[in-house]
Amino acid sequence: ILLLLNGVNLLPVLPLDGGWIFHTLVFSRHPIMDAVFRVVAALALFVGGSFAKSKVLMYLGIPMLMSIPAAYRTARIAAELNKGDLPPVSPDEQNIPPETANTIIGAIKRSTTKPQSNKMMAQQTLQVFETINARPPGWATTLALLFAHAATFGVAVVFGIVFIIGQRSDLRNIFINAASLPKHKVS
Fold first, then answer.
1. Phi then psi dihedrals of residue 54, to 5 deg
2. Residue from 63, 40, 185 nearest 48 by CA
3. How far apart are CA 120 and CA 123, in angstroms?
4. What is the pLDDT of residues 118-127, one digit of tens each?
């Protein structure tokens, strides 16, 4: 049962772990790809929820859709700042360097017309900084990690099929009879 749960968790749909793997490896490279992936993930939650008759999945799609504009703005600001000569890495990996923080805050202020609270500005600054520092791996490593993800998902699917077959008593009896000892002696 844990393998089945792991298989479901590895589905390439946000907010599941498989969705974050695909997002980090493939779709975080460009703001538009990021936004499109989030829209597809939200729609997949709606469609999956309607097929499974699960309102929980459908309700997960609502915050996903609502968060897309903010996620796109954060990714766009990070992409613009990555093109400049912004020092993204902090010396102790715990604090944002002041000149980097000021540059990010200036970019956030230029991207919106509404006044924002200091708390909201600090959260957005941290999100942009984390996006700048989260560099996706190279293409060879990406392909290797996607292969490992697909293999793990494949193992979960195989064990799910075995589990389903094991639950059906008529199929179980067929396999048990096929695996029994031969009825005739060989001389």
1. -115, 110
2. 40
3. 5
4. 888 888 888 8
